[in-house]
Design brief:
DNA-binding, five-stranded parallel beta sheet, Rossmann fold, 2 domains, Arc Repressor Mutant, subunit A, 56% helix, homodimer, 217 residues, alpha/beta
Chain lengths: 217, 217
DNA sequence: TAGACAATACGTATAAATACCTACTCCCGG
DNA sequence: CCGGGAGTAGGTATTTATACGTATTGTCTA
């Protein structure tokens, strides 16, 4: 039942061999690929950003701890969903983990079925997130190919101004606005105002007031 | 420093008088209003949905537990941010709480400053959430006042069809589309296509494909 | 320095949307 | 059974947006 998409990968980081061994067996038995690492450092050197999946992470480890790795991933803007697994952790650790975005925090020993369920959930989450991010990037990319002037015009379009109003605001001719507008539609690959709006607003995910910020980012 | 907006309220639910007493003193000292309750049941009977704030919730209590109250609030669609406070809880409890949306989970005894910080954060979150929800409701309300036909037309508008295309799709005249369109703009209180798009898409928070579902909900 | 691109602007023509108006039919509820 | 709203449609005039094409100026770069 667990997702056995061939392209997804479960990362397991735990310093104990026994844990790596048994979890590898468990997870592979569902058809889900898994790679395990004995330390956070090794994981960081082998993580493949292209591959959707999730991370099973031990809290207490020599050198870099699980929570530290979580911080490091945040810093590197790596958003792989993390399921913590721990033998001797306390509430403060779990709270920190969750507040930093962990999807779950399980105590060893845990119920195998529960773990598998959480893994599936985490992977789904990652896939959904990746789709959203890539869509966002695509649009952001087009946005960044607009000239500064075009971006200004776009931000006015999104706020609902007509060509005439924009011309007045920018102190340029109606014709020029039309030219910019046509270029914008072309560069953004939008077929209609509606499409353009969707791209401009959804991608920056902010109210139109803040749009100018988003478009320049 | 803690927000002392007169209209916000901290709810405290704990069966121990000593806890209620000391926390009340602490929180009132910052100028923040607080009301405490000895049980989940009493809280439920006295909760004021109009008042933004947050909930400090003890986990272990006679009768209904903190986690049960959290579930009940979810069931009642009451989305007040919850900060759990607990003396003898374990990781499973904290995990359950977080997965159900808790903003934090603190162990007694906790650092007063930390608690106050979390309260402030939670209240801000509630205020932001309430604003979003009320905006959403306002728009949803307008959406529901559209006739079925108008909703159909709106869903086509949002997908980027021109009047002519819509007329063809719905097998009605161009004029009728224009009439519907005018009614839609009026009822939705939109001044421009851009505004209309914002309302129609942001409120349903879904891709235009699914818009027809959202608009009928 | 020549060529590319951005920003500006004009002309003309067509297409689309908006703003007014009226009017018919159907169906539902008082 | 009658009034009113919804859905339909036509007329006319105006405003906007598009779609062509051309041209000037300035900046940046190969």
């Amino acid at each position: 039942m667990t997702g056995n998409r061939p392209d997804t990968l479960v990362y397991l980081v735990d310093d104990e061999f026994a844990v790596r061994d048994s979890l590898t067996l468990l997870i592979e038995s569902t058809g889900q690929a898994i790679r395990s690492f004995a330390s956070a450092e090794v994981f960081l050197n082998n993580y493949d950003p292209e591959r959707p999946g999730c991370l099973l992470l031990d809290v207490r480890m020599p050198s870099m701890s699980g929570l530290e790795l979580q911080d490091e991933l945040l810093r590197r803007e790596i958003s792989i969903p993390i399921i913590f697994i721990s033998g001797h952790a306390g509430i403060p650790d779990s709270a920190k983990a969750f507040r930093a975005g962990a999807v779950d925090f399980l105590e060893k020993p845990f119920d195998n079925e529960k773990l598998l369920g959480r893994i599936e959930e985490a992977i789904k989450k990652d896939i959904a997130n990746r789709e959203q991010v890539s869509e966002h990037r695509k649009i952001q990319n087009r946005l960044n190919h607009l000239t500064v002037r075009e971006q200004e015009v776009l931000s006015l379009i999104v706020r609902g101004y007509s060509n005439k109003e924009m011309a007045k605001i920018l102190n340029i001719s109606n014709r020029t606005i039309e030219a910019h507008r046509a270029h914008i539609m072309e560069k953004m690959q939008a077929e209609s105002l509606a499409e353009l709006m969707m791209m401009a607003t959804h991608s920056s995910h902010n109210a139109p007031d803040n749009f100018s910020l988003a478009v320049r980012a």
